Amino acid sequence: MPQTIFSADLTRSNVNLFLTSGIMHHPPKTYFIRTYGCQMNELDTEVMAGQLQKRGIVPTDQEESADLLIFNTCSIRDLAERKVMGKLGQLGRRKKRGLIGVTGCMAMAKKEALFRKFPHLDFVLGTNNISDLGTVLDEVLYTQKQVFKTEDVYEENLDYLAAKREHSIKAHVSIIRGCDKFCTYCVVPYTRGQEVSRSAQDIIEECKQLTDRGYKEITLLGQNVNSYGKDRPEWQCLFHDLLAQIDQIPGIGRIRFMTSHPIDITYELMQAIRDLPSLCEFVHFPIQAGSSRILKKMHRIYTKEQYLDKVTLLRKTVPNISLGTDIIVGFPTETESEFEETYELMNQIRYSVAFIYAYSARKGTPAMRWKDDVPEEIKETRLQKLLELQDKIAKEERGSFLGHTVEVLVERLNKDQIHLKGRTRCWKKVIFKGPSSLVGTLQTVLIEGSSHQTLVGNLHQM
Ligand code: SAH
Ligand code: SF4
Ligand code: F3S
After folding, report:
1. Does ligand 3 lie within 6 Å of residue 84's CB atom?
2. Which residue among 85, 114, 218, 368 is the one 20 to 30 A from 336 at the CA level?
3. For the whole model, what pTM was predicted?
4. 361 CA to middle of ligand 1, Å?
5. To which H or E segment does residue 80 belong?
6. Block mean pLDDT (10 aa), the chain, length 462
């Protein structure tokens, strides 16, 4: 069993060392990062990639033979963790392997316990220590020991500008990290820490640079973007104020945001969506459950009626708005009739997009104190019912686009190499035939059909 070594190095670099993982490691020349989970992790991967490339380590698409393999992990549901655990277990059985690191939410949820389960793991780096990646790598190489750094305090000086972006048309920009909502089922407040807003100046600078580099769409990211600025009242800059400033950037393309908590969706935000030309007419407005009793048990801090009132106001303010949601079925004690309330609510609201999950009990969350008493087969049946309903609603919605024109931001050539692929302002996927020179431009497309969740059309001739 590994044991902690308290050495002079520990105080100097403020990292924690464990005994060696058994293989002599040399400075890596190539890296591969496997990313799980949400957009925050995707962005963190891009930031880590930027740091590694600055050190001359180059990306490879050969996961098996990379000198440095990083798993940027997610803890949101049991399955997300099991996938990574399986992979890590397999790697331990290999005689020859490069450096292996775990970053992301599992690093925060499990910390150094990961070394006990996976003695061949070289480092564990938390979600608030991304800028320490280089130091931690150096420490592993210098000491040939296992190293972990998983602090709870948010790092102020993370260099987002050095991120190596996956796309050249659309980019993610972090505006707030962490979550203070503490929904009873959710690990995020423990794996990402407290809400910390990033200064408007830094955000705007990053958006300007991206715009100057030709990016056409920016998604503002946070676990709860619309509580932006509440932790810094002295800034007098709430989410809608920030949006108004970003909208003013010369040449700015489309702006989106992900994700929002219904309680913080204000009338000012609805007005911003109505009035700011760059802001797209799509809001992820996650209800989670249709019964007020379950919502209370989830600590969502709104009732079904309050939620519905907000949706009504939003639809009145922005008539062409599209809505997305997240739903959890089988939360502890959820009855059949409470599930029916969720079904009815989805039928009533008719979301454009719904991410539907079966409840998964997570260690360390308040919901663990309740028995996970909805049998797995019932969770599965409820999940399937909602998926079928959503499929039907989405199909009908796609039908309603027939014969209409939409504005599409062309993102890339489609996999079939014949069509171009992009999205409407309301986040619908569209494919249509056209030359690849149109990638990165806005086009008007006449919708003539649909296939596999995607609208199919033709360039509209004016
Ligand atoms: N901050 C975002 C959600 C982040 S997690 C928000 O509040 O909207 C993404 C989704 O995963 C959640 O909205 C929820 O639907 C789901 N989720 C979170 N914890 C879960 C759990 N323990 N079991 C099942 N689904 C969960
Ligand atoms: Fe999790 Fe709730 Fe925070 Fe979303 S708002 S990240 S579901 S605790
Ligand atoms: Fe997963 Fe962490 Fe995101 S738990 S969903 S990667 S914030």
Report:
1. no
2. 368
3. 0.92
4. 12
5. helix 78-92
6. 34 51 80 95 96 95 92 95 92 83 96 91 94 93 91 77 90 95 96 94 96 96 95 96 98 95 96 97 97 98 97 97 98 98 98 97 96 97 98 95 96 91 96 94 96 92 69
